[in-house]
């Protein structure tokens, strides 16, 4: 590709594509420069360094994942919303593996504050569980349970870690049934004395 056509957005898109092909942790400025047919130095007019490039990919990936999660949960509640959210996240992890890895990269609070994708993922994560009526800190505990379950399943599935003949889809469906049941029968943490009438907002 011609050097004249390079922009920060094009470089970021190309880096995301490369991440899906070789893994997020394997993207380098040199590999990306070869893809464009330019010297490494040409890319530094658009990204500061490798960390900046990876952060840009993480922001891009978060935006794309947020769009999928939003579409999957729109107009749904309870188990339907839980299932839509989980299936959208799983599909993203399977079809966009490098981008999925990017969404797991820790980023600073300044990046999160400026990233609409990160903000929307957090909002959608809490919102899609609203029908279960969990107060804090139980809602955060529940989200950690879901995230741990999903991430473990995705990583094992992607690496071929499940060797049993049992259908992965069948297991996934049972897992979502179990999570829905756990959320519906959640034992709410006792609130400290004197907080019974305090607002949760």
UniProtKB/TrEMBL annotation:
Gene3D superfamilies assigned to the protein according to its UniProt record, in alphabetical order: Homeodomain-like (1.10.10.60), Tetracycline Repressor, domain 2 (1.10.357.10)
Keywords: DNA-binding, Transcription, Transcription regulation
SUPFAM superfamilies per UniProt: Homeodomain-like, Tetracyclin repressor-like, C-terminal domain
Protein's name in the database: TetR/AcrR family transcriptional regulator
InterPro entries linked: Homeodomain-like_sf, HTH-type_TetR-like_transc_reg, HTH_TetR, MT1864/Rv1816-like_C, Tet_transcr_reg_TetR-rel_C_sf
Taxonomic lineage: Bacteria, Bacillati, Actinomycetota, Actinomycetes, Streptosporangiales
DNA-binding region extent: 28-47
Domain HTH tetR-type: start-end pairs: 5-65
């Amino acid at each position: 590709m011609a050097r004249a056509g390079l922009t920060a957005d094009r470089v970021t898109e190309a880096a995301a594509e490369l991440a899906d092909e070789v893994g997020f942790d394997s993207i380098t400025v040199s590999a990306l420069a070869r893809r464009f047919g330019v010297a490494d130095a040409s890319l530094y007019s658009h990204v500061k360094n490798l960390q900046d490039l990876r952060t840009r990919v993480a922001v891009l990936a978060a935006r794309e994942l947020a769009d999928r999660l939003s579409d999957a949960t729109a107009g749904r509640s309870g188990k339907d919303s839980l299932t839509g959210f989980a299936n959208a996240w799983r599909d993203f992890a399977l079809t966009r593996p490098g981008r999925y890895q990017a969404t797991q990269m820790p980023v600073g609070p300044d990046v999160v504050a400026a990233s609409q994708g990160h903000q929307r993922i957090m909002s959608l994560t809490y919102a899609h569980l609203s029908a279960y009526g969990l107060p804090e800190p139980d809602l955060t505990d529940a989200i950690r349970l879901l995230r741990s379950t999903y991430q473990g399943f995705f990583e094992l599935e992607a690496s071929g870690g499940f060797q049993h003949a049992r259908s992965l889809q069948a297991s996934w469906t049972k897992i979502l049934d179990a999570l829905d049941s756990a959320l519906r029968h959640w034992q709410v943490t006792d609130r400290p004395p004197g907080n019974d009438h305090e607002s949760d907002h």
